Amino acid sequence: MNARVDEMTMRGTPETLSDRELELDVYPLTKTPVAVSAQAWVRYSGVATKLDVEVVAWTPRAVAVRWKTPAGEEHRAWVWASAVEKKD
């Protein structure tokens, strides 16, 4: 049942932080050559879903994540750093 709910929720485009929120002209950007496994709260049409993701870049305040949808599509978004938890 949860997989079906995730599939319905992940239709469309995930919400991502705006350029204004990211402030890449103010904060340093770090990109990792090897993605880091994590979990993150991501929003689709205002609905928050906790997903298994890969961290690919970050600033002191925000994290760029990517993940596969149940349909196999790769989605990406910038989320606030506090929305991300590193997996053990």
Describe this structure in words.
By secondary structure, the protein is mostly beta strands. Helix content is 14%, strand content 50%. The protein is built from 2 helices and 5 strands; from the N terminus they run ααβββββ. Strands 4-3-2-1-5 form a 5-stranded antiparallel beta sheet, with no helix packed on it. β3 and β4 (74-80) form a beta hairpin. The longest helix is centred in the N-terminal third of the chain and has 8 residues, at 2-9. The N and C termini lie far apart (26 Å). The mean pLDDT is 91.
First CA to last CA: what distance?
A: 26 Å
User: Which structural class matches the secondary elements?
Assistant: mainly beta
Strand numbers in spatial order across the main sheet: 4-3-2-1-5
Mean pLDDT across every amino acid position? 91
Detail the poorly predicted runs: none
Q: From N to C, what is the helix and strand string?
A: HHEEEEE
Annotation, overall tally of beta strands: 5
Radius of gyration: 13 Å
Beta-strand percentage range: over 45%
What does the largest sheet look like?
5 strands, antiparallel
Number of helices in the DSSP assignment: 2
Helix content estimate: 10-25%
Shape call: globular
